[in-house]
């Protein structure tokens, strides 16, 4: 399978890139700065793109089977975040022009209704409020305006570094996994994203995951 990955220079994107290559997929890394990709592989193609400009993305998506976005932003109290919603509109437009139908992206647990533990939800709402707001806009856009796109929104809890647990990943539609852990290694997030390519179970759904 030929996979286009956005955010491949970030920690989660790097984990997804490595796991996809190890699984034998062909990967196109769409990046702002190609020098940020140190991985060398016969199945890896690195393309310089601008996520705000559709015309730079269209050539890179030709003949791809799926687009996976691990784009992430840093939130502030004062500045509105628009990365998630604005980039997704550009990505979807480029997908439509290249006839790519499958799209996976990341948001977070408790995006709209809060997490089950009030203190955790309050702290995250305070420090990540602008990020959560834009993630919600992205989800709303996919649900309301992308009936032709076969999307999966993956909602992990807090992300950690380190090796994959290789445990069975718990997944359910909704805001969180009630009996799941409160953090998940990025490598396990990458593992779940790739597993979605082998099933139609999570197509056009927003799924919370945990280990």
Automatic annotation (TrEMBL):
Protein name: NAD(P)-binding domain-containing protein
GO terms for MF: catalytic activity
Top-level taxon in the UniProt lineage: Eukaryota
CDD domains reported for this sequence: BVR-B_like_SDR_a
Domain NAD(P)-binding: 7-199
Gene3D superfamilies documented for this protein: NAD(P)-binding Rossmann-like Domain
């Amino acid at each position: 399978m030929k996979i286009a990955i956005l955010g491949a220079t970030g920690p989660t994107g790097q984990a997804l890139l490595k796991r996809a290559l190890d699984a034998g997929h062909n990967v196109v890394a769409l990046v702002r700065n190609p020098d940020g990709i140190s991985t060398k592989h016969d199945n890896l193609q690195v393309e310089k793109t601008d996520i705000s400009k559709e015309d730079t993305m269209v050539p890179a998506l030709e003949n791809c089977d799926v687009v996976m976005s691990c784009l992430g932003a840093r939130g502030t109290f004062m500045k509105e975040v628009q990365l998630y919603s604005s980039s997704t509109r550009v990505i979807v437009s480029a997908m439509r022009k290249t006839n790519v139908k499958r799209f996976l992206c990341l948001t977070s647990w408790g995006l709209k209704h809060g997490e089950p533990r009030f203190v955790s939800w309050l702290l995250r709402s305070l420090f990540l409020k602008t990020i959560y707001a834009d993630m919600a806009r992205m989800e709303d856009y996919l649900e309301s305006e992308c009936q032709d796109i076969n999307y999966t929104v993956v909602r992990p809890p807090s992300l950690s570094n380190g090796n994959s647990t290789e445990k069975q990943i718990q997944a359910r539609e909704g805001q969180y996994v009630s009996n799941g852990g409160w953090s998940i290694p990025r490598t396990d997030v990458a593992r779940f994203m790739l597993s979605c390519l082998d099933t139609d179970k999570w197509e056009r759904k927003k799924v919370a995951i945990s280990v």
